[in-house]
């Protein structure tokens, strides 16, 4: 386990380096700069700003300086939200995005695994087929359609829940549900399929033949191996929840990271965009690592 | 699966032929019928917030969304098949290096790469789908590589090699035709993914630009206007979900049959 962890952490470094350099270069190739707003700046002011932020230096020097400061944990200043550093903005936005994504992941796992277990326990029944059809429909629901639709139904029409802003737990319900639905559908389908395979295995048949209660067989013998594909799905899915959150944060006007990213990209706020990309890449690598560790725990045979 | 394909066919037919039948252009404004409800002023589904016929807009939006998605999926198919076939066929160090690239690319935050590309290359519809295609080929490459590695060991390929056929001929004659089925299944599954990305970008204002429209833009307009009328949100949203569902069902069935 320790060796795997170390190896994965070592491969994470070059991956992150590639992400950083690629994003850095892509942003700079883009036409327009952070100070090309609607109102043209006086050339002398513009030059002074460029100099103050070091944007007049050669590109290689800029990358070098950026990486050096990054190594010390400094993401640099935001070019558009003056008076704020990127670290300030991340500190404001990240908790919102993580809460949103984390709760959605939890809800999706609980709903999906629960539905998969129920369907497998009643394999072939009407309930099984109804649940799996529902799961297929859920997997294709785009958050930017379900988000507004839920807001319309439960917010504007019924008036039960707030449709925008960041406050108490009530503000989280609709965005979390909209984010969780497609993931719940996929988890449900994977759990059901995994259980079907596991139930046809020899050791399960033996357990059944020995007279163990079907529910007990399902929970103690079949569920753990059946969750292996679920675990390997959830790593990338967690990353997907973060990206999906970009839209949900826009729809529900939540002050998360995703909104800063889109605004930053449109405004050519180089340090802000880079900071968010690096953070997301790091989180994706982390989630994939967690999924791999979970994988090893669920199926000891895969431990190298 | 049959029902899914029929529904998909109907949607495609409506998107292609519909504008010939509907008496309104997708971008012309009916000043007497701004935010008209369904079945009023001759507008079957009503109009949007500036009085444009919703049915006509939905048809044109579907057409653009599907065209962009198909083009992007084809780009992904070409890159993915080429990359996977070369890696699988040559094997060894080349394979190792090529698949490392794929692994690294998987770790990139996709949506952000796409958004960066959109920002870099401006808002040309051509580049929207090239950009999406350029990040959607990875799974295709993995599948194709696996298939090629399996096919390489099959007797008919070994026989062709023994008979002295040049590698290019073997790949073209014996390998690619045997890949076609599974590649088609994944093409079908790539299209809904691209539809999703395109709509997502258009929704955020980074994809297809006005006056051209797409399902993502229509959903966005509908969402902005939903406290007044619900049809502008539900119609394009419903079409989008129907397309995604049909393609996913057809693709999964085909994949399960071939795998």
UniProtKB/TrEMBL annotation, chain A:
InterPro entries: MetI-like (IPR000515), MetI-like_sf (IPR035906). It comes from the Bacteria. Belongs to the binding-protein-dependent transport system permease family. PROSITE patterns: ABC_TM1. It holds the Pfam family BPD_transp_1. It is a multi-pass membrane protein. Residues 94-295 form the ABC transmembrane type-1 domain. This is ABC transporter permease subunit. Keywords: Cell membrane, Membrane, Transmembrane, Transmembrane helix, Transport. The chain crosses the membrane at residues 9-30, 98-119, 131-156, 168-188, 233-258, 270-298. It is found in: Cell membrane.
UniProtKB/TrEMBL annotation, chain B:
It is a multi-pass membrane protein. It comes from the Bacteria. The chain crosses the membrane at residues 64-89, 183-208, 228-250. CDD domains: TM_PBP2 (cd06261). Keywords: Cell inner membrane, Cell membrane, Membrane, Transmembrane, Transmembrane helix, Transport. It is found in: Cell inner membrane; Cell membrane. This is ABC transporter permease subunit.
